[in-house]
Amino acid sequence: MADAPLFDTLTIVGPGLIGSSILRRARQTGTLARHLIAADCSADVLNRVEELGIADEVTASLTEAAAKSDAVILCIPTGAIRPVAEAILPHMKAGSILSDVASVRSTLGPDISALLPDGVSYVPAHPMAGTEYSGPDAGFPTLFEDRWTLLVPPEGTAPEAIATMEKFWQRCGARTRQMTDRYHDQVCAIVSHLPHLLAFSICNTADRLSTDLQTDVLEYAASGFRDFTRVAASDPIMWRDIFLTNKEILLATFKRFEEDAHRMAEAIQNEDVETIMDRLHRGRHVRQGLTKQ
Amino acid sequence: MADAPLFDTLTIVGPGLIGSSILRRARQTGTLARHLIAADCSADVLNRVEELGIADEVTASLTEAAAKSDAVILCIPTGAIRPVAEAILPHMKAGSILSDVASVRSTLGPDISALLPDGVSYVPAHPMAGTEYSGPDAGFPTLFEDRWTLLVPPEGTAPEAIATMEKFWQRCGARTRQMTDRYHDQVCAIVSHLPHLLAFSICNTADRLSTDLQTDVLEYAASGFRDFTRVAASDPIMWRDIFLTNKEILLATFKRFEEDAHRMAEAIQNEDVETIMDRLHRGRHVRQGLTKQ
User: Fold this and answer.
1) Cβ separation B257–A205 shorter than 8 A
2) Is the ipTM reported for this complex over the cut 0.85?
3) Where is the Prephenate/arogenate dehydrogenase domain (chains A, B) (predicted)?
């Protein structure tokens, strides 16, 4: 027999890539929630969700949706989470769960905890999955499959609420782990935020080339540039928010990287073959560790 | 009717990823050469080529192979091309063609031109294709399909020899274009050499993390880090040679990138939203130009 739905009513605020993937998964499996609400402030987005048929109900009223829901997941840019949470939390039912999918935590945990009404739990989670596309058409039900979702509940969160959200993400196909906000942000600074910063930067470097050379760079982009910059096609607003929210840890990580890259350039300048080979071998070793997983 | 083979006897010096892919293509199509020789100084490599059955003849004597051949393609690290060319050129037949697949040109064109015996042409070409794997097992016959191969013959090369090598690469499935050495090296510095330098460097940064954090970075590597560093699994000796041979242009390109990345970090530091958004939009625009091709 199929598992009963985890929630009666689930609201996804912001049915974009992540949000619409959750809705599709919920529709496909029937084990996440009985009734699905998509809430967004854009009429275009809501119309599109309706056309796609991936929610039972669409609404522009976040507070009404929140009042009816057993769980609300904010799938919106990091910078919008605090104000939206502030607006909807007073309307949420006792026993319900607020979540978000922010890819950077900073002080979100304590900030939102301070706003929680009695009986409402906050169990945010960061699904480490994505593509460079956005919007309700970009989602698909297997987006989270075999990817990590990192649960980052603030200290003191009710264990049952954590267990429920862990089950939720596992039913989305994800592997789950719990960690603190700060550790989460350190891991993400290097596995995701720094690569994005560099990818956007190298595209800027390409943009400064002479027109001829730039055309040819795009024409001949081999796997290096192509793979390297794939993430630079990602949504600018989302990345602005991530960069600013994880500013402190990201810039510390960038500084280390800058030193490493500069030292490599110096070794090339000085034709210091020993240092070059040492760095190439270490780099390769780290990368190979990755493919063994 | 199938096309007649372009050459009677073809020698591939260094049947690794690129070399063995040419051999496999030649075997599969029959239109590149009638008789295939694989030459290498490693007995292990030659044994493996024999086991794979991708050449008609294997030999450790580069000069004997060269003497019998209508075309010799050096598929060896960039740093080895000049000395190997010097050793085999005196043995090559009038009317034959020497080629290589070096991914950086620097002064190779004039250097090798100066060594050419009468009647031997030098038509190097850089197939912009590859994977992070190496060795005779890594090749496959479709490696060059729909990828660019850039022909970089020195000034004054016989047009018939250029036309023959152009046809050769087209029969390998590649799109071809001719350009000068210096322009080639500028394009490759940004589409390939700089991304490799950065990928190796970010792996070095990851290598300096605390053991716990490093383990988790490898564990949770999302698409950013994963795509970004794929190329850092590439062969260190090949990349040492590329970095050193294209030193001047690569370091100039790196310097521009360093400025761009540093300016982006500064904008994040100063929470200069306008600059951040400008750079994210430009970066995305450049990257999107790439996927439209």
Assistant:
1) yes
2) no
3) 8-293
